[in-house]
Amino acid sequence: MRKELLIGSFSLIAIILFIGGVLWIKGKDIWGRERIIRAKFTDATGIQPGVYVYFRGVKVGEVKRVKIIPYGVMVEFSVQKEISIPSDSKVYAESRGLFEDKILFLVPGLSSQALGKDMVLEGIRKENILENLGRMDVKEVITALDELRNFAQTGEKTLKEAEIFLKDLRKKLERIETTATSQMESTGKALKELNLTLKELSEDFKGGALGHLISDTLFYQNLLKTLIRLDSVLERFQRDKGIRVKLF
After folding, report:
1. Phi and psi dihedrals of 57, rounded to 5?
2. Least confident among 79-83, 204-208, 231-235
3. Which residues, at least 6 apart from 141, have a Cβ–Cβ distance to it below 8 Å?
4. What is the domain extent for residue 65?
5. Of 97, 127, 157, which residue sits at a domain end?
6. Rounded to whole angstroms, how far apart are CA atoms 60 and 53?
7. Helix (H/G/I), strand (E/B), else coil: 176
8. Are 111 and 155 found together in one domain?
């Protein structure tokens, strides 16, 4: 009797493990930690059972079933029960690469109402690059490539013209600098000679016969002020290497 009881117990355990393994292989939730959510797509190309479902960048489930319904395709997928999903959420089907299957992205909405058991979310399928290229006319592609090539050639030509302009501008600036330096040297020399001449004239005015003809010292004082201003100009010229002219 005891032996038969042991055999029956082991058989029951084996059956339970077998059923659990089959359910696990099929993706069934054995422990009841998931809920099934449905989304309606107009086109479910690339969506098949086993495709992963992501929520805020985290894998939270996978597609369980894809079936055709009037005016669309119903996709059923599992999501962890603890995740709160607003009723206005959307499901996007996107591709990671050119040839890979779609991946579902559950994007939460802003509604304060939670998703009910019988509610169906809106499914949006995004096309990949190859699908978009398949709809394009070959002539349009060639035209776009020609425009891109022309744009690249124009940009290269513009860069070359800018380089030539900068080189020419640099040469002109070097010539201007050389001319300005020579002019400053000649101007400084002329100012020094003028200063010396005015000093000699002032001495002649002060001690010569012409000085005695002047009844007062007003002319002499004005001449001294002029010499002082000239000395100031020479000092600024030597310090700043240039002359600043102010008309008004």
Report:
1. 85, 5
2. 204-208
3. 133
4. 24-127
5. 127
6. 6
7. helix
8. no
Q: 71-75: which pairs have CB atoms within 8 A and are 24 or more residues apart?
A: 71/42, 72/40, 72/41, 72/42, 73/40, 73/41, 73/42, 73/43, 73/44, 73/47, 73/123, 74/38, 74/39, 74/40, 74/41, 74/120, 75/38, 75/39, 75/40, 75/41, 75/44, 75/47, 75/104, 75/123
Q: Within this chain, do residues 165 and 217 fall inside the same structural domain, yes or no? A: yes
> pTM here?
0.43
Q: Beta 90-95 vs 102-107: how paired, if at all?
A: antiparallel
In the block, tokens 């339970």 appear at: 16
Conformational region of residue 88, where left means phi above 0, alpha means psi within -120 to 50, and beta covers everything else: alpha
pLDDT score, position 247: 36
User: Helices 138-207 and 218-240: crossing angle, nearest 10°?
Assistant: 140
The per-residue b/e assignment along 74-91, b for 16 or more CB within 10 angstroms, e otherwise, is bbebbbeeebebbeebeb
Q: What confidence tens digit (pLDDT) does each residue in 170-179 have?
A: 777 677 666 6
**Whether residues 165 and 234 fall in one domain:** yes
* 132 falls within a domain: no
- 3-state SS, residue 53: strand
Question: Given CA atoms 118, 115, 34, 61 in this order, what sign does their dihedral have?
Answer: positive
Around Cβ 98, how many Cβ atoms within 10 Å? 9
Sign of the CA dihedral 46, 50, 54, 55?
positive
Q: Which of 73, 102, 127 is the last residue of a domain?
A: 127
Residue pair 104/92 in contact (Cβ under 8 Å)? The answer is yes
For residues 101 and 156, membership in a common domain is answered with no
Pairwise CA distance, residues 35 & 105, whole Å = 16
